[in-house]
């Protein structure tokens, strides 16, 4: 029986989170990969792979959360990923929690910008993740988050 | 001299944009372009855009001699990939420029790295830019830590 390429959904919000996700793209080589972010113009960075734009959600835009959840639900049901990987922030946390409901394995990579403490999203999402990572060895703990390396 | 000013997309950073706008007004030898995001101050002495596509952003980045920015990780990564010198002013939580103190922490960590020049206040920007012009860019961070992170993610994918 031939092994099919695993289906991956990679999620990041804008700015540095997206740049960090682009720095680990090699991890998805040989996979059936789709990307999710908050700016439609990021589509060009990952063409010809599938790309979905979602409404941003942050502490500044709390009211958008319903629209974001609905869109993520639609994407997850359509993609049915085996693994969800996210570099944060809040939309990544939502995606990770929802992906668990459909049985996906999940990876949280906290932003390298979080040097002194984990992000709030990272603390909330991380305990539910199969692989819960910080990019700073001094923030790692025996029960997670773990340190495996950094995008820099 | 060509400057590219970039302050991210999340929150205004008037302090930095206004300071550079004022600086280039006095300096006909400087050509500046700014991606200002949510910043309210509209520069009158340099061209600006609210947002650019990643391709446009990279082109501007490539064409500049010096990048002037907030302490954003995306900017640091792009500067290291394109070997550009960075002059950075951290956003301050006390001034409602950011919702956490992580830019100050990132600034402390980056300080002293070749090609990265952190200033404490906007008043220090002009002198720092003149000091940095012609100097080396940020060295690429490319290292075994990135390879190790990629390996860890691949392990989860292929289990």
What is the structure about, briefly put?
Chain A contains 5 helices and 7 strands; from the N terminus they run βαβαβαβαβαββ. Chain A is of the alpha/beta class. In chain A, strands 3-2-1-4-5-6-7 form a 7-stranded parallel β-sheet, covered by helices on one side.
Structure write-up:
The complex is a heterodimer of chains A (152) and B (159). Chain A has 152 residues and is α/β, with parallel strands linked by helices. Chain A is 30% helix and 20% strand. Chain A contains five helices and seven strands; from the N terminus they run βαβαβαβαβαββ. In chain A, strand 4 (83-86), helix 4 and strand 5 (105-109) form a beta-alpha-beta unit. Chain A starts with 6 loop residues before the first strand and ends in a 5-residue tail after the last strand. Chain B is an alpha/beta fold. Chain B has one domain (2-157): Rossmann fold (3-Layer(aba) Sandwich), CATH 3.40.50. Chain B is built from six helices and six strands; from the N terminus they run βαββαβαβαβαα. The longest helix of chain B has 14 residues, at 144-157. At the A-B interface, helix 1 and strand 5 of A face helix 3, helix 4 and helix 6 of B.
Outline the fold blueprint.
The complex is a heterodimer of chains A (152) and B (159).
Chain A: E1 7-11, H1 16-23, E2 32-37, H2 43-46, E3 50-53, H3 65-79, E4 83-86, H4 90-101, E5 105-109, H5 120-126, E6 131-134, E7 146-147
Parallel strand pairs in A: 1-2, 1-4, 2-3, 4-5, 5-6, 6-7
Chain B: E1 2-6, H1 14-25, E2 31-35, E3 47-49, H2 54-63, E4 66-69, H3 73-82, E5 86-88, H4 102-110, E6 116-118, H5 125-132, H6 144-157
Parallel strand pairs in B: 1-2, 1-4, 2-3, 4-5, 5-6
**Which structural class best describes the helix and strand composition of chain A?**
alpha/beta
Low-pLDDT stretches of chain A are none
- Radius of gyration of chain A (CA) equals 15 Å
The count of DSSP E runs of length 2 or more, i.e. the number of strands of chain B, is 6
In CATH terms, the superfamily of chain A is Glycogen Phosphorylase B
- Shape field of chain B: globular
The oligomerization state is heterodimer
Strand order of the largest sheet of chain A: 3-2-1-4-5-6-7
Instruction: Assess the beta-strand content of chain B as a share of residues.
Output: 5-15%
- CATH H-level superfamily title of chain B: Glycogen Phosphorylase B
The structural domain count of chain B equals: 1
Largest sheet strand order of chain B? 3-2-1-4-5-6
Helix content of chain A: 25-40%
Distance between the termini of chain A: 39 Å
Which CATH-level-2 architecture of chain A? 3-Layer(aba) Sandwich
Largest sheet of chain B: 6 strands, parallel
Name the average pLDDT of chain A. 94
In sequence order, what are the helices and strands of chain B, one letter per element? Answer: EHEEHEHEHEHH
Biggest interface, chains and residues, is:
A-B, 42 and 40 residues
Strand content of chain A: 15-25%
